[in-house]
Amino acid sequence: MFTIRPARPSDRDALYRICLETADSGADATTVYRDGLLVGHIYAGPYLAYAPDFAFVLEDEEGVCGYVIGAPDSREFEATLEREWWPALRAQYADPTDIPQAERTPDERLTHLIHHPPTASQEIVEPYPSHLHIDLLPRGQGGGNGRRMLERLFATLREAGSPGVHLGVGGGNTRAIGFYRHLGFQELERWPGGSLTLGLKL
């Protein structure tokens, strides 16, 4: 039996673990990164801290096995993180800008994002101001869990007045791309490395 509930501060370790175990285009990235907290610092922790009303977890008898997190106003969220979240992490992790991009380790590539967080273009955030991340461990995949979690978040975003939501997905994650397209997401942007930005009108 799977249940969806609002995330709690005590779920932080579970979110970080799931974030890491799905960070390799949906596969386990535990052996990819030396610092197992980096992925969570970027893609999970900020939402639990600064957008808790838009964070939900999937839970079974073994514990939390998935989450969906988002921010209703991406620009406002970016500004909040710039003030409240990134400074402490920037003091902890050095900016690897002096290392050529092609020579950076996986950890250094993530550390670079802490110092230079990507932002969506204005052309995207105007019609699709919200954004989200969803990750499920293998035992939580299938059976409609992903769809149910997204619908829970979509309803919450609509209640907050959002007209649209966007997300990023790696070009190699064909399973996720197919899932999002099936839900009605449309391609908005394609990046040089193959990653896509998808959007959905709410």
Automatic annotation (TrEMBL):
<dbReference type="InterPro" id="IPR000182">
    <property type="entry name" value="GNAT_dom"/>
</dbReference>
<protein>
    <submittedName>
        <fullName>Acetyltransferase</fullName>
    </submittedName>
</protein>
<dbReference type="Pfam" id="PF00583">
    <property type="entry name" value="Acetyltransf_1"/>
</dbReference>
<dbReference type="GO" id="GO:0016747">
    <property type="term" value="F:acyltransferase activity, transferring groups other than amino-acyl groups"/>
</dbReference>
<dbReference type="InterPro" id="IPR051822">
    <property type="entry name" value="Glycosyl_Hydrolase_84"/>
</dbReference>
<dbReference type="InterPro" id="IPR016181">
    <property type="entry name" value="Acyl_CoA_acyltransferase"/>
</dbReference>
<keyword id="KW-0808">Transferase</keyword>
<feature type="domain" description="N-acetyltransferase">
    <location>
        <begin position="2"/>
        <end position="202"/>
    </location>
</feature>
